[in-house]
């Protein structure tokens, strides 16, 4: 069966553990496994800006023995010049897997339904599941391994309606985390995602909570994460968003309310002085550079899993 990774709950808790263990193993030995040797080609397509995702996928596919085929989104113009389904039919006949960063989750789902090869979400408006795999790898790296993740208290503060909020809810619940989203009342996560995350958490021993106060969100937690207040595609709303989310800035005073050894995550790019202060981002509790590195290891583990399952 062709397996995809379109949203965080496409991996069961057991499968997520396997992928995270493999990600940690790739940290130790980058050439541990080469499931794309041949080389098998993996198409990587960007309809939005990218740095970490492009570098980590292209590097990772090459290290897996494959050929990273970078498709320029503005040339392919998927869904404009040619339908998503027709693009999927063409790509699926030539490449071993497709990695796509685009806007609508529905387009990614259509690609997966038609391609016949694994499709990976490299960020949509709704989810960014590869980032959360990297974040969980980072927590496992800094704490006691994958087995230590369950029961971790995790606060995400800022825009509760964006892709990172949704992926932390689903991916965190899958790992058995207690996920608290701290966000204003006008930036709520999709209720269907919250309900699905709560259902997963009920089985993994985690929990999900949405609160509207920064202090309540971060009090006593093991991990604090944040993200830009203006996601790609929302640039026109930037000024308004700075006002809406100001009360959720992650600064030293907020971090001091978390556990004294709490780790700080940020998927980057970060805007110092906006969603996070320089003091926190560049401070001793921040593990954001490991987090960025772990995109490589986590995605190699994910691609290995998908290519071997499919
Ligand atoms: N929420 C951000 C994540 C960037 C990696 C965005 O979509 O722009």
UniProtKB/TrEMBL annotation:
Belongs to the aspartate/ornithine carbamoyltransferase superfamily. OTCase family. L-ornithine binds at residues 163, 227, 231-232. PANTHER family: ORNITHINE CARBAMOYLTRANSFERASE, MITOCHONDRIAL (PTHR45753), ORNITHINE TRANSCARBAMYLASE, MITOCHONDRIAL (PTHR45753:SF3). The keyword Transferase applies. The keyword Methyltransferase does not apply. The gene is argF. Keywords: Cytoplasm, Transferase. InterPro entries: Asp/Orn_carbamoyltranf_P-bd, Asp/Orn_carbamoylTrfase, Asp/Orn_carbamoylTrfase_sf, Asp_carbamoyltransf_Asp/Orn-bd, Orn/put_carbamltrans, OTCase_ArgI. Residues 3-140 form the Aspartate/ornithine carbamoyltransferase carbamoyl-P binding domain. Its EC number is 2.1.3.3. It is found in: Cytoplasm. It catalyses: carbamoyl phosphate + L-ornithine = L-citrulline + phosphate + H(+). This is Ornithine carbamoyltransferase. GO terms for molecular function: ornithine carbamoyltransferase activity. Residues 151-305 form the Aspartate/ornithine carbamoyltransferase Asp/Orn-binding domain. It comes from Cellulomonas dongxiuzhuiae. Pathway: Amino-acid biosynthesis; L-arginine biosynthesis; L-arginine from L-ornithine and carbamoyl phosphate: step 1/3. Signal peptide: none annotated. Carbamoyl phosphate binds at residues 101, 128-131, 267-268, 295.
